[in-house]
Amino acid sequence: MKTNQRLPLSALALVLAALPFFLHADSLPYPAPEFHGTVDPARDKSKPDWPAPVKAAAGAPNIVLVLLDDVGYGSASAFGGPVQTPGLEQLAKQGLRYNSFHVNSLCSPTRAALLSGRNSHQLGFGTVIESASGYPGYNSVWPKSAASVAEVLRQNGYSTGAWGKWHNTPAWELTDAGPFDHWPTSLGFEYWYGFQSGWDNQWQPRLYRNTVAVEPPTTKAEGYNFTHDIASDAIHWLRQHEAVSPDKPFFLYFATGAIHTPHHVPQEWIDKYKGKFDQGWDTLREETFARQKQLGFIPAGAELTPRPAELPAWNSLTAQQKKLYAHQAEIVAGFLAQADSEVNRVLAEVHSEGKGDNTLVFYIVGDNGASAEGGLEGWDLRTSTGENAPLAERVRNLDKLGSDEYYNHESAAWAWAFDTPFQWTKQVASHLGGTTDPLIVSWPAKIKGVGGLRTQFQHVNDIAPTIYDVAGIKFPDSVNGVKQIPLEGKSLAYTFDHPQEPTHHTVQYFELGGNRGIYKDGWWAGIRYLLPWQSQLPEKPNDDVNFRKWELYNLNDDFSQAHDLAAKNPAKLAELQTLFDSEAKRNQVYPLAPVRPGPLPGPASERTHFVYLEGVRRITQRELPEVQGHSHTLTADVNVPDSNAHGVIVADGGRWGGFTLYVKDGHVTYEANASGVSQGRVVSTVALAPGANHIVVALKADGQSAAPNSWPNRNLRGATAKLTVNGQPAGEAHFKVFGGFLNETLDVGQDLGTPVSAEYTTPFGFSGHVQQVAIDLTQEK
C-alpha cells in the first residue's frame, strides 16, 4: 500500500462519525446524541427521534451529604458526648461509624475539599473567604479546573440541591450584580437556599434562593428558625422531585449553620440541658472519655490528653464564672440537639418516600473541631469596643443568651472539652482536636455490616471519590472544556465490606494560619503557631511561624496524640518535615499565614462616591464604602407626604453594629451603635417640612483609635456628626466609637434584618419617597 493512499470515502465517514466519541469519552458534557430518525421532504416519509437525556447508571444511589458546623469530636451522644443525638444514633445503627475521619481545621477549606475531592489550597481555600489574600492557595477563587462533585453528578443524570451555609464564594462577588461564577448554582447545584458567609443570625438571616436575595418566610415571633427553615425547604424539594422525577437519583447537600456562633436556638432546647454542665469542662472530658471507651468508639489503650496551660481549670473559677460558663455549654448542647432533630426530619422524608434503602448518607459531624474563637470568656454582652461587659452584668442577663438579643459563643475551654480526647480545637491544624470529626455512612441496600466501626485514616477529600465510585462515574479529564486537576482523595467504598483492610489514604497534609501538620502511614508531625482567639492572620510579614517546636506522634499506638516522640525519633520527624515541605509546594500552601495588605478587592475598593436609589436593599459590607472609623458625608434627598413622616431612610448594619438615618414624629434622627451598644443619636431640632428635603450628616473621625487592642475591632475611632436639614444646622453629637461588628446589609427606605436602633422595629419602612442616598468618603490627612 502506498503511504499516500487515501481511505475509501465510506471508511472515512465512519472514522469522522466516531471521532466525537473518542474526543469526549473522558469529557463532560457528553456529546449530543445522534439523530436516529429520518428527515424527508415528505412528512409521511419522515420519522422523528427525540434526543435522549443523560441518565445515571442503573441502580445509582441517591446521595445525602450532611455537614454540621463547629461540632467537636466528643460532643454527640452517638460518639460518647454529652449531647443527646437520637437521629445520629439511629443512623449509626443502620450504617458505619468512622473514628479516624479528618477535616481541615476551618470552614471554607473543609467545604472546598469535601465538594471537590482535592486539597483546599489547590482550590484557593487555604483560609476562609473573609481572610483571603492574593496568592494562588489563598485567593478564594474556586478554579474551573476543579469541578465540584455536584457538577459531575448533574452532568451524569442526577438532580442536585444544596441547603444552608455556603462559604466558598469570593467575598467581593457576593453582590446582586454578580458575577455568579462561584455561587452554588454555578458549581453544579441546580437549586440552593441558604446564606453566604461563615455565620449568620439564626433568627433573621440574610437568605438567598439561588442567586436572589430573599427574606425569611416568617419572623422569630412567628416561630422562625434557620435550621428548621432549611429542613422544611429541603423536604419540599424532595416532594417536588418525587412528584416529577421519582426515578431520577438526587444529590442533596445539607450544611447547617449549627453550631457555629451565634448560638441561637429555641429556649425549649436550651432548657433540656439545664444543670447538665455544672460539673465543668475538666470533669466533662473525663466523663466523655469514659463513654467513648465504653462504646468502643476509641481504642481501649487511648489516653486522655491533659488540659493545656493556656486554659483555666474549672475549679479555679469563681461561682459567677461557673454559672455563666455552664449556661454557655447548655446553649451549645441545645443547638446541637436541635440540629440533629432537623437533619433527622430530612432523612425521615427520604425514607417516607420509599427511597431510604438505596440512599447513601454521609453524615459529617463537624467541618472542624469545636470552636475556641470565643476566647477564654466566650462572647455575649459586649461593650462598644467589642469587649465583654463586666461579669456581674453578663450574669444578670444570662437568660437572654440564645435569643435574638445576643451573638453568643462559648468559652474556649468548652471547645477543648467538646474535642475529647484530643488536644486543641478548631483552627489548630497541627493537632487532632482541630482536624478530626466523626463520620457516619449509611446505605442499607449495600452496607450489610451495620453498626460497625471503621478505623482507617480518612480525609474529607475522600467523599467525592467515594461518590463517583458508588455511582459508577469515571472522573472526567475535562469538564466544560477545562482540563481537570487530579483527585487527591481516595474512595472509602472498600471500607464498607472490608473493615480490616489497611487505609488507602496514606499521606495528607494539614495547614491553617501557620498551624500545620503532616500524616504518613500512621505517623503525624505538627507545629502550632497561633491560638484561635489570638488572630487568624499574623501582624507582620516577618512574624516567625516556627517559634514553637515541631511535635511527633505515632498514631498507630497513640490514638489521641498523648506522647510527643520528637526528641526520641528525630529521624522520623525530619522525614515528615521534608514531606510537609514537598506537599506544601505541590499544593500551593506557601507562603504560610500570608499577610494581606489593605482590603479585599471588590466593587467598592477604588470608589469614593456612592449613590443608592429608592428600593436598593441587601448591599453587603464588601460592596460598601469603608466608613467605620473614617470621615465621610451621608446625604439623603427625600420627599415626605406630611409633617408626620416616619420610617428608615437608610440603614447599614443591625443590632450588633451600624448606623441608621430615620424619621420619627416628623424629626430626622441619625444614630449609630457599635457591637450592640448605642453610641448616641442626633435628632433634628426642626421637623421635616412636607415635600422635598435635603439631609446631610457630616462625620469627622477622631485622630486616636478608640479600641487599639480589641480584636476584631482594632483601629476603630470615634467621630463627631453634624446634621443639617435643607442647608440649616440641625444638631451635633460625638460618638465614642463609630463602627463595630457589622454583619448585615445596607437598605434604602427600610431596615432589613435586625434593627440598628432600639427606637423602632424592623423593617420600619419610610412613609415618603427616597430619591437617593449618597455616601462620600472624605480625604483624611
Summarize this structure as a short list of keywords or feature phrases.
781 residues, alpha+beta, Alkaline Phosphatase, subunit A, Jelly Rolls, 2 domains, 10-stranded mixed sheet, 6-stranded antiparallel sheet, 14 helices, globular, disordered N terminus
List the helices and strands and how they pair.
Layout: H1 9-24, E1 27-28, E2 62-67, H2 86-94, E3 96-98, E4 101-102, H3 107-116, H4 149-154, E5 159-166, E6 191-196, E7 207-209, E8 212-214, H5 226-244, E9 250-255, H6 267-271, H7 280-295, H8 319-352, E10 359-364, H9 391-396, H10 412-418, H11 432-435, E11 439-442, E12 452-454, E13 458-459, H12 463-471, E14 478-479, E15 482-483, H13 494-497, E16 507-512, E17 515-520, E18 523-527, E19 551-554, H14 570-586, E20 609-613, E21 632-640, E22 647-654, E23 657-664, E24 667-674, E25 677-683, E26 691-705, E27 717-725, E28 728-738, E29 746-748, E30 769-777
Parallel strand pairs: 1-14, 2-9, 2-10, 3-12, 4-13, 5-6, 5-9
Antiparallel strand pairs: 3-11, 6-7, 7-8, 10-11, 14-15, 16-17, 17-18, 18-19, 20-30, 21-26, 21-30, 22-23, 22-29, 23-24, 24-25, 26-27, 27-28
Helix pairs in contact: 5-8, 7-10
